[in-house]
Amino acid sequence: MLELQGIAVSPGVAIGRALVFDREGYRITRCLVKPEESEIELNRLVEAVGYAREKLESTQLSTRASLGDHLGSIFSAQQQILVDPNLQSELESLIRKKSYSAEYAVSEVFTRYAAIFRKSPSTFLAERANDVRDVERLLLEQLTGQPMATLTQLPHEAIVVSHDLTPGETAAFDREKVLGICTEAGGPGGHTAIVARGMEIPAVVGVGNFLHNIRSGDEVIVDGHLGRIIVSPDPETKDRYLQRRLFRQSIATQLEEIRDLPATTSDGVRIELMANVEFPHEAAACLARGADGVGLYRTEFLYLGHTLEPSEEEHYEAYAQVVRDMQNRPVVIRTLDLGADKMGMTRPAEPENNPFLGLRSIRLSLRNPALFRIQLRAILRAACLGDVRVMFPMITTLDELRNARFLLRSVSEDLLTESKFIPCAVQVGMMVEVPAAVLMLDRFIEEIDFVSIGTNDLTQYTLAVDRSNDSVVDLYQACDPAVLRLIEKTQQVASKHNKSTSVCGEMSNNPAYALLLVGMGIRTLSIAPAAIPILKKAIRSVTIGQCEAMAWRALRLDTAREVDAFLMNQLAGLVPEIVLQA
Amino acid sequence: MKQTAVNSVLSIDSRMSSAIQHSLVVVKNAEGLHMRPADKLVRAASTFQCQIELERAGQVADCRSILSLLTLGATEGSELILRAQGPDAELAIRTICHLFENQFEETTAS
Hints:
The structure holds two protein chains of two kinds. Chain A is of the alpha/beta class. Chain A has helices at residues 38-67, 69-82, 85-98, 102-119, 123-144, 167-171, 191-199, 235-257, 282-288, 312-325, 361-367, 369-382, 398-417, 435-439, 441-444, 455-462, 481-496, 511-519, 532-540, 544-554, 560-574; strands spanning 2-5, 7-10, 13-21, 158-162, 178-183, 203-205, 219-223, 228-231, 272-277, 294-297, 331-334, 388-392, 427-432, 450-453, 500-503, 524-527. An eight-stranded mixed β-sheet of chain A has the order 1-8-7-3-4-5-6-2. Chain B is α+β, with helices and mostly antiparallel strands. The A-B interface holds A 73-74, 76-77, 80-81, 84-87, 113, 116-117, 120-122, 124-125, 128, 131-132 and B 31-32, 34-36, 38-39, 42-43, 62, 64-68, 70-71, 73, 75.
């Protein structure tokens, strides 16, 4: 059994067999062999090379006959690649000295050459990467004895294990076959995370190098709640997870019964449960789960897998669909919240040393006003279809808020001048994600209609911890007393000015934390659609007084660990039916 | 300038004991040293006993390895230093120079 820690980006637990893909999306069996088996691997390689050579030779002949010498010679050159002495000696050395299996060595060496070619500024050379890949595929097909599976054509249900996934690969996923996702690379804001959440596939990313420790067919558990990967679990562990799954299924039926009831505490205080969504099609899932609206519509997906900036129409269509589907329920659209590395917008000249402290989110939008205006125009147009609110992310200074509002106003005037229609008034809010915004909130609050606390970034910026960094991830605790104080202060300032505060971070996906937030005075929570039913259950099981007492005590504790233990204990006492007793 | 570069290589090599043959070759194919020329070069080089190398901007490629030849990224007009060491080095240099000269018998695409 091997346990690995990564970043939980999409909740849920998946148990299944691994299908391991390499960097290029081809399946391989990555593994090491015992040193004494190296000779066997070398012989397998020699055989495979012989087979591939014959195959290339016959292709060369048939191509030459049908298409002429010129094209036939491509396969002659591929034969040269196959028997290239440098390549062969690298393969041999990996197998002999590092105990690589023949497949692993082939994949490693060919991937490296393909990468060298791809990086070449000459388009001609860059295209040679495909020749290298063709030869590799021939060899691997011979070595594994089966045609290559690709990510878009999984042969059976599986947990997809890979170094990283491209937007194209994730977008083409077969939801029926992909049980879970686990990648070496990637972070909380990456496209794998976004797509996995949208498809409700449990996913853990940023696990670090581990592909050499797993092979296709191994049993794997992906724990999308705790960010954990377990390879070849022992019977005890597997049993624990299977029980959890049974438990979840059993409460799912209870939850179904309260779907159409409001999220109201037992003493009658209404809590708004909104949904965080990524893709337009998720609006349906929100309604099915009884969401009161969309509290956070992330708009980054428009930029995923596209090399061109989305047009105003594309923005508009995406927003309009959600607004229509939500049938007059509020829809809070967050303007683009991406780093420069994730999109086609003007990139910073130099790679950034600290991307999280760099040109991202609202800073990037304000730096690209022409593109920002396109998004704002689309939002204002969609606002005529329902209750649309606009929210600016990562506001740090008043100047940023004012500049963003200025652009919004000017876009609205443009629309009026073009007399396409009279733009509807929209509520404007800001996300509170930076401690500076909390400290200055009494000034901000006069210029906005609502605030929404993004606990993910607020935790990261308050505790100065990068949650994608394995070495410090244990410091990343949304229930840290420092973070709680900032949330408390935000809520107090906003309520003093009669403005609403919602919390839209992942923190409130946990019912215990959500009850704490309710006890602190928060009346709107925005969470993953899948988490809505259980949260509703928790809220309907408690009184507001119980939540307030819980908050009063939690805010007097010293450490994140104490807060967490206290909250989990409270939840077990207040809503025992949703807590699995260990 | 080109002359100096070659001379300096020659002068270094003249201090070595074994006889290394050199020549300066220029890629004349419009598409550079691409797959087919590289393939022909490897085939030609493999018929000799001597070690044959091509150098471009400090990067050295073994003429028996198509991958290392391709990674030179030699485009049309690239100047390469051809080096051979071994019993049949002189003939090897002449043969390979000839290949470069007549553009690896590639017909120019019309």
